[in-house]
Design brief:
The complex is a heterodimer of chains A (273) and B (164). Chain A is of the alpha+beta class. Helix content of chain A is 31%, strand content 25%. Chain B is an alpha+beta fold. In chain B, helix 2 runs antiparallel to helix 5 and helix 3 packs parallel to helix 5. Classes of the chains: A alpha+beta (273), B alpha+beta (164). The structure holds flavin-adenine dinucleotide and FE2/S2 (inorganic) cluster (2 copies).
Chain lengths: 273, 164
């Protein structure tokens, strides 16, 4: 159904981006295909053994109302709970947030931090790729004509692991991130040493950024302020922000550091349980 | 004019058959096709909550849902809030607390409050403010709205206790 119309066909999930964009006449299409009826797109299965499979069209509220997800993937719950208001969360999906590929998409950094991968189906078959390789520019992603994101797959949480996402906005709710940071950490059994970490930033580049250096330098270091500080400096170096009505590039670089530290602190606290 | 699509849905407890265009939002269908003008349009882009309705138990903005998506759904609009014998406690409480001025935001706030209080009549102020963050009001300054919702919650909690 999608392939037939090529670039003139688009998927409809919760509609919280695409209906606004169509109404704003940002682009014109011939066909909008409601993907919410596809069973795989609505799948939500989560366990400590198998990890999490999140159908691309599952709305945010189903994520944060799920007790198992709350306990195993609280970092994802952070992001799902701060998209828009309650009305938006009743419809908006994480899959749509990712496909929309906004640099400020609040769920994308935590998907990257949690090591999630995209399951993509299309006329030529299926493929899987890491979330950090999915967005290619503002509003651009790797999907070819006729391809759909079916689900996001998250590896089972490692022992002694924790994650957190937070953003800076001038209001309490209902705003677009000036900057955001997601972090996940795995601690050694001593719960004092970092085994591995992943850090990702929102709204400080043309796509969400996987801050690889900041992530890697944490391996083997103490879970302490000094280490968080070092990661924050590396995250600032990875940020490539622009200045716009929401904030200046300078402010965003500063925020990348502050938010990275805070995300790490909370991720470690959660990992220590 | 594109071809019209037949939609069967349920609004405020009544089965409804309607014809709409595939591009029409649920908000447009309610207001322009069904003449149910209680649901308001503020921004038409999901920011103000004036168009709030409840679909299958979930609070949503009807401007961000297509009319054709209403197929097989159960929808509650502001027209379905009052009882046949009088006002709903939330409506009564908005009047008593003077929680409205121009009134354009009021149907959205009342529907949003209903979606919260029916499940959590004892929601505290923080919860109420967070829940209503997707509803904007240019007149009241919100405080009276929050008081009205908290008061209505108390009434609803005592009502449900006296019923059970
Ligand atoms: C008032 C308001 C407040 C908001 N606040 C925030 C916020 O705080 N933080 C934030 O990050 N976002 C925010 N958003 C945007 C957020 O709601 C969206 O990004 C949402 O997550 C997109 O999901 P959806 O299901 O609504 O997608 P849709 O709008 O249905 O689709 C979005 C895009 O993805 C494509 N798409 C959807 N599903 C698939 C699929 N399975 N395969 C391929 N392509 C697909 C669509 O074709 C479209 O291009 C807000 C939006 C509004 C209206
Ligand atoms: S009119 Fe729908 S949210 Fe404003
Ligand atoms: S009473 Fe006028 S907008 Fe709320």
């Amino acid at each position: 159904m999608m392939a037939e119309k090529g670039p003139k066909a688009k998927a409809l999930a919760g509609g919280t981006d695409i209906l606004v964009q169509l109404r704003g006449r940002r682009f014109f299409i011939d066909r909008l295909v409601d993907v919410k009826g596809v069973p795989e797109m609505n799948e939500l299965s989560c366990s400590a053994e198998e990890g999490l499979t999140l159908g691309a069209a599952v709305p945010c509220y189903r994520i944060y109302e799920d007790d198992t997800i709350q306990s195993l993937y609280s970092g994802l719950v952070d992001a799902a709970f701060l998209i828009g208001g309650i009305q938006i969360q009743g419809r908006a999906s994480v899959g749509g947030n990712l496909c929309n590929a906004s640099p400020s998409g609040d769920t994308i950094p935590i998907l990257i931090a949690l090591g999630a991968s995209c399951v993509i189906e299309g006329p030529k078959g299926s493929r899987t790729l890491p979330v950090e390789d999915f967005c290619t520019g503002p509003g651009q992603n790797v999907l070819q004509d006729g391809e759909l994101l079916v689900a996001l797959k998250f590896p089972p949480p490692a022992a002694n692991s924790g994650a957190h996402y937070l953003r800076f906005i001038p209001r309490n709710e209902m705003d677009i991130a000036v900057a955001g940071a997601g972090a996940s950490v795995v601690l050694e059994d001593d719960k004092e040493t970092i085994k591995s970490a992943r850090i990702s930033l929102a709204a400080v580049g043309p796509t969400p950024i996987f801050a690889e250096e900041a992530s890697e330098l944490l391996a083997g270091r103490a879970a302490s302020e000094g280490s968080f500080e070092a990661a924050a400096e590396a995250a600032k170096a990875a940020a490539r922000p622009i200045s716009d009505m929401r904030g200046t590039a300078k402010q965003r670089i500063h925020l990348s550091g502050v938010l990275t530290k805070r995300a790490l602190r909370e991720a470690v606290a959660r990992a220590q349980g | 004019m594109s071809k019209k699509i037949h939609v069967q849905t349920n609004i405020n407890g009544l089965d409804v058959d309607l014809l709409c265009e595939s591009r029409q939002s649920l908000l447009e269908v309610l207001r322009d096709v069904l003449n149910m003008t209680g649901t308001k349009e503020g921004c038409n882009d999901g920011n103000c909550g004036a168009c709030s309705v409840i679909v299958d138990g979930r609070l949503i903005d009807s401007c961000l849902m297509l009319g054709v998506e209403a197929e097989g759904k159960e929808i509650t609009t502001i027209e379905g809030v009052a009882y046949t014998h009088g006002l709903h406690p939330i409506q009564q409480s908005f009047l008593e607390n003077a929680a409205l001025q121009c009134g354009i935001c009021t149907p959205g706030f009342i529907v949003a409050a209903k979606a919260l209080l029916e499940n959590e009549p004892e929601a505290d102020e923080g919860r109420v403010r967070h829940w209503l963050a997707g509803n904007l009001c240019r007149c009241t300054g919100y405080d009276k709205i929050v008081r009205a919702v908290l008061d209505a919650g108390k009434t609803m909690a005592t009502q449900s206790k006296s019923e059970s």
